[in-house]
Amino acid sequence: MKFNKVIFPLLAIATPLTTNAMTAFDTRSVGMGGTGVASANYLTSSFHNPALSAAYGEQDSFGMILPMIGARVHDGDSAIDKLDHFQYLDDNLGANPSEEALEQWREALRDLDNGTVNAEVNLGMVFAIPNRYLSTNFFVKSQVSVIAAFDIDENDLALNDPSNSELNSRGQAIGGATVDVGFTFGHEFELNEKPLFLGVSPKYQRIYAVNYIESVDDFDDDDFDWADEYIEKSAFNIDIGAAYQLNDKTMVGLTGRNLIKHTLEANPQHGMDATYIVNPEYVMGIAHDRGWVNLAADVDLNAKKYFKEYGYKTQYARLGAELDAWGWAQVRMGYMHSMTDYADDMATLGLGFRPFGLLGIDLGAQIGKDDNYGVSAQMMLTF
């Protein structure tokens, strides 16, 4: 499959970082519909709300996540299969030209027009030391985002001998990645005789961008040197958060992530630019924890845009629930409602296993219509 040779090297920009590196969604959160601003624990606070690093139990003294990995792919237009089919017909037309083969070739080319695929990969780790003075996490997290799209030139459809002509129809794949290395600091205060948690995560940020454009008949990476093509830069950024405990069972939270906006222009290709964007994100959440069941809801207060040249952006309202069996096993479920036309709703499911409350394994999955799937897994240790 030639298309996979394009997507996966783009995702592999982050491969050297996997030993150090995840973004806002840990695996528990994936199973709970992406919630976490008020429902995360001290260990996952660096991914959701820095303030929650100070919201820990009396028995908590150390925790770690190593590793966490997640991936999601959405091919709502079946663009991967359509590209494979077109390139098969293109090869066949060159070897066995005929009117019937030419019509099949044209129909396959039309089917590719405006087809898009988007994919994400998340990787991360955390070491956490909660305490009453200044709860501290060290974290590394990364996210890779890729969008591929196809634009068909009408002049190509009028060709009588495409095998001896250069096509103007092109595919473009653009990828962007962020790698954050930082510390989370949180402390508990008192407001109206109830706990108020405040936190901050200063971080060093490495940003990557790559742009790949090729005619649809040659959309492949055999002659493309990824290591020499991607652009990178270093930056500083910061996350902040607050959480207020309304009563013994209910928490509200508010967080702002990547408060400093950064952009990075990828390598230009055929006169077409691609600019990766790191924008501030603001999220509000509420959680109600009764011990055996934890209910949570989050809402994105602004949309997240990934690339300047593409309208694609995401914004969600999220619901999640977790059923806990004596701390040894958890069943999670959730729903993500897309607030933009660029993404679809997704249902989520997750499982957690924590024998003796020490070593834990979490599994999570997301599913939406039109070939929209995501999976996540992590290992954690707490004591």
SSE diagram, text form:
Layout: H1 2-11, H2 27-31, H3 45-48, E1 63-74, H4 79-95, H5 99-112, E2 116-129, E3 135-151, H6 154-157, E4 170-191, E5 194-215, H7 226-229, E6 231-245, E7 250-257, E8 262-265, E9 275-278, E10 281-289, E11 293-300, E12 304-305, E13 313-314, E14 316-325, E15 329-338, E16 346-353, E17 359-368, E18 372-382
Helix pairs in contact: 4-5
Describe the structure.
The protein is an alpha+beta fold and 383 residues long. The protein has one domain (2-382): Porin. Helices cover 15% and strands 49% of the residues. The chain is built from seven helices and 18 strands. The chain has helices at 2-11, 27-31, 45-48, 79-95, 99-112, 154-157, 226-229, and strands at residues 63-74, 116-129, 135-151, 170-191, 194-215, 231-245, 250-257, 262-265, 275-278, 281-289, 293-300, 304-305, 313-314, 316-325, 329-338, 346-353, 359-368, 372-382. The strands form three sheets. The protein has a 14-stranded antiparallel beta barrel with strand order 1-2-3-4-5-6-7-10-11-14-15-16-17-18. Strands 8-9 form a two-stranded antiparallel ribbon. A two-stranded antiparallel ribbon has the order 12-13. Strand 14 and strand 15 (329-338) form a beta hairpin. The N and C termini lie far apart (46 Å).
Q: Provide the gyration radius in Å.
A: 23 Å
Identify the overall geometry: elongated
Mean pLDDT, rounded to whole units? 89
- Biggest sheet strand order reads 1-2-3-4-5-6-7-10-11-14-15-16-17-18
Using the coordinates shown, work out and report the CATH topology. Answer: Porin
> How many strands, which pairing sense, and closed or not: the largest β-sheet?
14 strands, antiparallel, barrel
List low-confidence stretches: 1-24
Structural class: alpha+beta
Strand-residue proportion: over 45%
Number of strands: 18
- Note the total helix count: 7
Count structural domains: 1
CATH architecture: Beta Barrel
CATH class: Mainly Beta
**End-to-end CA span:** 46 Å
SSE order = HHHEHHEEHEEHEEEEEEEEEEEEE
Percent helix range: 10-25%
